[in-house]
Design brief:
The protein has 13 helices and 2 strands. By secondary structure, the protein is mainly alpha-helical. Strands 1-2 form a two-stranded antiparallel ribbon. A hairpin with a 2-residue loop joins β1 and β2.
Length: about 350
């Protein structure tokens, strides 16, 4: 077959794969994150760490709860039957999840950094009330960054049987030169801002924090041997988030190149036809991964498998708290020894 027909041949398969992955993300995400919210909210003592994980689970649960709308839209061959408001809300919730999740991971990384580098300060100032206030601040920032998607999302009736939900960056149906230029400018601004503030900047902070943490741990071998488990779950969450969302951001940049280029590229068309749906599916799957990580990365996994999922999650979170407490004590002891030596 010719190259120009490749997207047409692949589209049905990509369409089916997307539907399967969206549905899988919905089922696993709602059940898994709902269980995490239940365990942390009603079965465990509230601590700084559980505040972080609770907010992460709420962000993922909120997003996956809206996934049936996307599944329906895709199943109806991109016909949106839910009206303009739900079109706006559904997309906004998706990006609210992106920004809230990544900035909660930033907060967790900074929290770990402070606990290692300034353990005495952290012991005196680190508490649940302040953690809750920081979490509230994260949600406010995430709402501000996701607000443009509510503004620019729109619906259009393509035919009597099809209404599409799309980004109307010009907020107009005109195709005059000035309107097209405005549309392209806003499109570029949205994607570049999302890439920088939703990916590059957060992961720069995260990587910097853990680079300093590793440096401090290497200077203290005893501390390093006692601190491997407290970082295991959060490291896995961060790596998983990066791997799931990186293709989405890369495809967004490729899409931007296509729309801002004066010449059409058949290769870009092929990449976008196949890559964008798959990258989006992978990003959606991230919202159901964390509960699985909480269970599978706990100690004595074989024993936990024999127990109920609820009990397994509860034990997994208890391990995080216990190991973090042990690690913190070892940091304080190490700090005291250093101070006594200096005196």
């Amino acid at each position: 077959c010719s190259g120009s027909s490749t997207p047409g041949l692949w589209s049905p398969y990509v369409h089916i794969i997307s539907l399967i992955l969206y549905s899988l993300a919905f089922v696993l995400g709602v059940l898994g994150n709902g269980m995490v919210i239940w365990v942390i909210g009603f079965k465990m003592k509230k601590t700084v760490n559980t505040v972080w994980y609770l907010n992460l689970a709420v962000a993922d649960f909120l997003f996956t709860a809206f996934l049936p709308l996307t599944v329906t839209y895709t199943a109806l061959d991109f016909h949106w039957p839910f009206g303009k408001f739900m079109c706006k809300l559904n997309t906004t919730i998706g990006y609210l999840n992106l920004f809230a999740s990544v900035y909660i991971l930033v907060v967790i990384s900074v929290d770990r950094y402070v606990s290692v580098v300034w353990p005495v300060w952290a012991q005196n100032h680190r508490n649940v009330r302040k953690a809750s206030c920081v979490s509230l601040g994260v949600w406010v920032v995430a709402l501000i960054l996701s607000a443009p998607y509510f503004i620019f999302r729109d619906t259009e009736e393509k035919s009597q049987d099809q209404t599409v939900c799309f980004n109307n960056y010009a907020l107009s149906d005109d195709n005059t030169t000035s309107v097209i230029q405005l549309r392209n400018f806003r499109h570029q601004a949205i994607i570049i801002t999302r890439f920088l503030l939703g990916f590059v900047a957060p992961f720069t902070v995260i990587v910097s924090c853990y680079a300093v943490i590793i440096y401090h741990l290497r200077r203290n071998p005893t501390l390093a041997s006692q601190s491997s488990r407290p970082f295991k779950i959060i490291a896995a969450i961060i790596i998983t988030f990066f791997l799931c969302w990186a293709p989405f951001h890369i495809m967004s940049l490729i899409e931007l190149v296509k729309f801002t280029s004066d010449t059409s590229s058949e290769m870009l068309e092929h990449v976008m036809t196949i890559g964008i749906p798959l990258a989006t599916s992978l990003a959606f799957l991230n919202s159901c991964m964390n509960p699985l990580l909480y269970v599978f990365l706990g100690k004595d996994f074989k024993d936990k498998v024999r127990k109920s999922i609820l009990k397994a999650l509860e034990i997994a979170f208890q391990e995080v708290e216990t190991d973090a407490h042990t690690f913190k004590k070892s940091v304080d002891t190490s700090q005291s020894k250093v101070l006594n030596t200096e005196v």
